[in-house]
Here is the input.
Amino acid sequence: MTDTVGIVIVSHSKDIAKGTADMVRQMVGSEVKVAFCGGNPDGGLGTNVPLIIEAINQVWSPKGVAILVDLGGAETNSEMAVEMLQPERRERVVVCNAPIVEGAVMAATEAAGGSSLDQVRAVAEELSAA
Amino acid sequence: MSLEPEMLKSLVKAAAEQVIASAAELTVLDQAIGDGDHGANMKRGFEAVLGKLDTIAALPPGEALKTIGKTLVMTVGGASGPLYGSFFLAAGDALANKQLPADLADVFGSGVDAVSSRGRSKAGEKTMLDVLFPVLETLKSEAIGPDLIARVRTTAHEAAARTAPMQATKGRASYLGARSVGHVDPGARSSCVLVHAVCDTLEARS
Here is the structure.
């Protein structure tokens, strides 16, 4: 099996993150590695840097990892998580500026075709262009 | 104003305790214009810092600040984690080859720059930067002296109050548009609490 870009879904709500991951899997099955996380360290609404780092490492691929986020704190915490990765992994992880559900489905579908990280990100971010 | 282990411990303890004591107030402010989690998030983060107090106090000052930063990043659970975390990580890095108190403004400025770039934010957007930038200006413009602490305290207090009439253009409060006007920004308030904790501790010791 050729490597595909991994997908990470980061929402303030674990339910939204899981539901989004379910929708992604419905589209791409197991062709693409998908991880999700949501909730603050106490389990309330929020995001959590250690869990984001774990999710990235879980779906790690030499082709890289695309992260889809919902609101501001998810983006800020995801960017922080990326900076805390091993140096050789940092450059191969991007946080997409895209709506979380549509972005994740589009990114995973593109990734399933073997596209590069830049292509996966571009497809997800087209959703934000208009 | 040297940063000996005992002093460092007093500063960190006071900062953490005053943030924790302000949690309810921060929650009320954040409920008005945000998602209401700033108090609980800051409390969780600074309780984790308090839990490592002895370890932190035993470290060289730069490493101590970086440990505080990393602890906040890993435990806060909201955008304020990476924002305050970046402040302490960058200030800790800067402190490695600087001297206190002479380079205080430089060290503090490194932290403020890190917050600005992490949040892609600037002054006037109704954020914690609207306290941090004015405090930095006071540190830059005033020689270290007996009234510096009082001036920093006043600067932080007035700067936090000035966020009330601002309209938020960054963070969750920006979704409210004009309705964000009339409330003090919770991040500006928590920055003020931290600055005041440091002022109180230094004053008590001088």
User: Anything to note?
Assistant: Chain A has one domain: 6-129. Chain A touches chain B through 19 residues (CB under 8 Å). The mean pLDDT of chain A is 95.
